[in-house]
Amino acid sequence: MFEKENLEEEVRKLWDKNKTEKKALALNEKADPYYFLDGPPYATGNIHMGTAWNKILKDFYLRYNRMTGKNVWARPGYDCHGLPTELKVEKKLGIKDKKEIESRIGIAKFNEECYKFSTEFIGTMNQEFENLGVWMDWDNPYRTLDKDYIEAGWFTFKTAYDKGLVYKDKYTVHVCSSCETVVSNNEVEYQKITDESVYVKLKVKGTEKEYLIIWTTTPWTLPSNTGVIAHPDFDYVKVELNNGEKWILAKELVDPLMEKIEAGYKTLEKFKGRKLKDLEYETPFHDLPLQKEINAKIVLNEEYVNLEKGTGLVHCAPGHGTEDFLVGRENKLTALCPLTMTGEYTEEAGKYSGKYVKDADSELVEELREKGLLVTTEKIKHDYPMCWRCKTPLLFMAMPQWFIKVSAIRKKIISDNKKNVNWAYDWAGKRFEDWLQNMGDWPISRQRYWGIPVPIWECQKEDCDEIKVIGSVKELGKDTENLHRQFVDPIEFKCKCGDKMKRIEDILDVWFDSGISPWASVGYPQKEKPFKSLWPVDFILEGSDQTRGWLNSLAVCGMLTFDRIPYVNVVQHALVLAEGGLKMSKSRGNIVSPDEVIEKYGRDHMRHYLLYYDPAEDFVFSWEKMKEVNRFFNTWKNTVKFQELYGSREKFPSKLELADRWILSMLNSLIQKVQESNEKYYGFKSVQAIQEFIVNDLSRWYIKLVRERLWPTYTGRGKKAAQATLYHLLDTLNTMMAPVLVHMSEAAYQDIFRGEGYEESVHLRKFPKENKKHIDKNLEGAMGETRLVVEAAAAARQESGIKLRWPVKKVTISTKNEVLKKEFKEILISVLNAKNVEFADSAKDAVKIDHAKGVIFLDKTVDTELEREWMIKELGRHVQEQRKKAGFKIEDKINLTVDSSMNTQFENADNLISEKIGLDSYSVGKLKGKNKSEFEFRGKKVSVAF
Known about the structure:
The chain has 31 helices and 36 strands.
């Protein structure tokens, strides 16, 4: 299985046959639960590299925690409601606008299509996630569209209402005119756009030519102007222009404006802004119906006026902005909002009725020009709120909405976050805290169809304010098969006044759906098990874009319902980007799908690649990096094969050689580091540490140290120790890598490491624990210095023109490490390929090289005997290469003859090379054998045959 090209498919067949995934999910059932909560992706499309990274990261930690004995709760979830689904279904049904849903399709039919769409994609996404090697309870995902889940939403809403945390108010909210619904603050995305800003004259009442000068980037809001805001402490001036007009604006901003319009002026008067309080003026569109009874005036505010740009007098339209609304309410300014949900002016806007506001900008500007009220215009690039789903510019509109009073619980959320939530990354915790500090009340109602119905019934009598909030199916009094709009909208109650009560038509914000998942996903409050034993959530892992999203809604809903944030440990990851650090997009043609990577390299290659890098940084996908991953895989495969050839499931002998003791110390230190990293949710550090160990400590160093002891013909001391150590190393490493290389580790386990009485699968094994008795930091330090010495010696050889395989007379080492001096001489002679090693602070006739821990001196003198050894080394190397080319196996013996002008120097060379090249006989002279070749040594040719 391990050698097969279709290794992963073979492993998956084995898992299916043995039901391994189900057995793994059921591990440790009697242990304390470890509650993982899956942030539900929208069930609206195929997975992409970002969702793959997310699920693979989660799977890594879940597998690790299972292997450490925890009873892991691993149920996937799906967000099924809201605009993402509605927009997909609208496209499928050819719906052009929201009105068609009711007039042509009908709410019942539309919601049925939404249900069908979501459930179909859940099946598709389940398969795609499982194909990544992710093990969760795919047969039983939680779905926000299920009846019990919706009922849990009603329970949460009713709980908040009973605590006085739900209210209805006219307030400015973001509205998407394309989606025709409210967009909550955490859904808003800002984008740089270019708009035409306008400087406008507002005539002061009771004067002939006196004007207030305002500036705005949203001309479409001018019909709703009911006030102007001035800063009480700023200096303002009244200036007279050459045409006799008198303008009022901030002193600091006079010259910039006059330069724009190339106008001359003189200052008539200077005063503080507070002097302008209650000054009345004519609004620019006072002839429109909505402006008939408006008495516009100047109001004062210190917070919302600055001198960075504009005029220091701020246009105030309380119906079209949060700050405007708050200032307006404080100063009793009328909040006008003559807009429909599609962003068109209503009849109140007179001749502009039916026009989309952004399209009307140019007409409004033209009317200002005709009235003589336009000072100037200029293009400005600024941040503008956009719909997160369809990227349409949002409109601020004052309208009646239902709100969650987050402001009342914000301090408790902030306090609980500081005390009880562990953020794996400090930056993520800081970002969340910053968000909480500025979090406003949550507009929870949406004017849409597919979602959790707001459980509020209102009396239909005009002068009756009675409402009824339902918190369960029992309170509803009718056990319908479903709780979506088409089922609950027809249900009515009788009011105390005798009239009927009908449900308001709104649904809840889709973020509320996912916010209740800690209890709704496990069937609470309908049943107490398993919620009571699981609560709170031990671990969540989501993208950095969820700070304002899911993490926020979880915190709010948890505090509303249970007076605490519902999670304990949070890991956040950054974004997946294309090569060059660009966002992946169809238009750029740079999308890399998980399937594409799997087809080219395999699932485990992709898993290792995604798990190796720090998730706090944006993951920039690179095919070149995939090649690096492949090189590591080849190293690991070759190391496992080497163990299979030369290792042995032997018991450790009573005495281990120095190299064996060192690598076992390193292995147990590695286990310790991996466990610490994983427990802190720094899994990438453990993956990096394991790779570093395999490549540098095991493959490039330990195997180099013990290769001779593992050779089939070797009969000296320490062979069993090397065999047992190598087997133990590879078996342990294979188990440690099981959460990463889920298929390859299984194949290696089944073919090589699984012994009698062992677990059925590597994924049912316990994660290795360190044996502290094996850890010797002094030994590790000495070997670390040894490797520095070898690097320095290699530099000295290069400087002297001496190849690594040629022995040198002596290496002198200057060191303060006593362990190195006492125990490492034999190893140093071997790895330095030196006849002798001495410890001293200087040496004659030597090349000196400094390193981080000391100095080495390489003796570069060469005598006849040393040269003979070099030549015989070259002979051994050449014969090895020719054996491989000829297809000889390791165990095959050869009859070797050598012929050259240096025959006397080759006599008795068989004693030096016999073990390494598998000699049966050796002779010098006339060549005998089919396999003939030659090599050159220091300008002289040597011929060989075997």
